[in-house]
């Protein structure tokens, strides 16, 4: 079982950008409690869309969390800000990983 990247791209509902990053604490905290969670990176693209990259110990744990997230925290402000029809999710096995020391 290889480490897995979960890559989710999405757009926000109109007028939902204000506070979106600050409201993501609920999502990050929930992810951190899930078996197999390793890290999360949330970024905004130049076109205004977003990408959320979550690293998991394996694909099975990623899929299990994806199957529970809406039932458990789907009503939080961060999740409600996302335009459902825009969500695209995929998974990729990690082929190479490098971490830079903090501050570099």
Descriptive report:
This protein is an alpha+beta fold and 104 residues long. It has one domain: Alpha-Beta Plaits. Helix content is 26%, strand content 27%. The chain contains three helices and four strands; from the N terminus they run E-H-E-E-H-H-E. The chain has a four-stranded antiparallel β-sheet with strand order 2-3-1-4. A hairpin with a 5-residue loop joins strand 2 and strand 3. The protein is globular, with a radius of gyration of 14 Å.
Summarize the structure.
Helix content is 26%, strand content 27%. The chain has 104 residues and is an alpha+beta fold. The longest helix has 15 residues, at 59-73.
What's the topology here?
Layout (H helix, E strand, L loop, with lengths): L3 E7 L14 H8 L4 E8 L5 E7 L2 H15 L3 H4 L7 E6 L11
Antiparallel strand pairs: 1-3, 1-4, 2-3
Name of the CATH architecture: 2-Layer Sandwich
* Secondary-structure element series: EHEEHHE
Biggest β-sheet: count, sense, barrel?
4 strands, antiparallel
Strands, total number = 4
Structural class by sheet pairing and helices: alpha+beta
Gross geometry: globular
Q: Which bin fits the share of residues in helices?
A: 25-40%
**CATH hierarchy class name:** Alpha Beta
- Low-confidence stretches are none
CA-atom Rg in angstroms:
14 Å
User: What fraction of residues sit in β-strands?
Assistant: 25-35%
Distance between the termini: 31 Å
